[in-house]
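Supplementary Note 3. Input sequence used for the single-chain structure prediction.
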Amino acid sequence: MTNAETLIAGLVAIDTNSNGDAVVMVASKPTMPILTLKQGLTMSMGYSIVTTTLSNEIGRVVYTARDTEPSTFGTAIAAFDKFNYEANKQGFAEAAKLTNELVDVFGYLEETE
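The predicted structure, written as discrete structure tokens, is reproduced below.
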């Protein structure tokens, strides 16, 4: 199991932010603040590294999981993409629910000239 997979396994997807990043909470500690999950490919000392990071609400990176073995990069990226998809799906479901509630309140507004 990659470090990214281990990190992602301990998170719960809540939504996505305006940048398309997954907004998450720590599964075992729901009282912790909401965090943002990001992933990137970086170079260090000539070696590629897949970094999966958690950032706080102001964007400061508070935790980083690094995968340095090139043979595991595909697995780490796939785990992140699958989790990000779930966060997007959750966000769309919440937006649809809110839209339905607003339609119940305001109805369907017609264009007026």
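The first helix runs from residue 3 to 9. The longest strand covers residues 35-44.
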